[in-house]
């Protein structure tokens, strides 16, 4: 039960990082672009290329969220495979009996 709770928390963390990165970069880039177009902000490198810089940051943040999601899925896959292997080996052991106890090995 504890593992599933931790897994759900990790999934929410990745989803939160994904949505926050998109919203923040879009909002900041749009506001700066609008203020520049109305002449409120002066012309500067960061202001003129703010949308491109924001898009690049968004790609980086989305990539980090994707890496976290892939890692989480890989860890879950390893855990499920270990559980399946343990389950199958226990069934075989119960079906065949303990070879040491029967004197076969």
Q: Determine the strand fraction and express it as a percent band.
A: under 5%
Into how many domains do the coordinates divide? 1
Q: Percent helix among the residues?
A: over 70%
Most strands sheet: none
The residue-averaged pLDDT reads 78
Low-confidence stretches: none
Pattern of helices and strands:
HHHH
How far from one another are the termini?
A: 38 Å
How many E strands? 0
Quick overview:
The protein is mostly helical and 105 residues long. The chain has one domain.
How would you summarize the topology of this molecule?
Elements: H1 2-37, H2 45-48, H3 50-96, H4 99-102
What keywords describe this structure?
single chain; mainly alpha; 4 helices; 105 residues
Question: Could you walk me through the main structural features you see in this protein, from its secondary elements to its overall organization?
Answer:
The chain is an all-alpha fold and 105 residues long. It has one domain (2-96). Helix content is 87%, strand content 0%. The protein is built from four helices and no strands. It has helices at 2-37, 45-48, 50-96, 99-102. The model has no long low-confidence stretch (mean pLDDT 78).
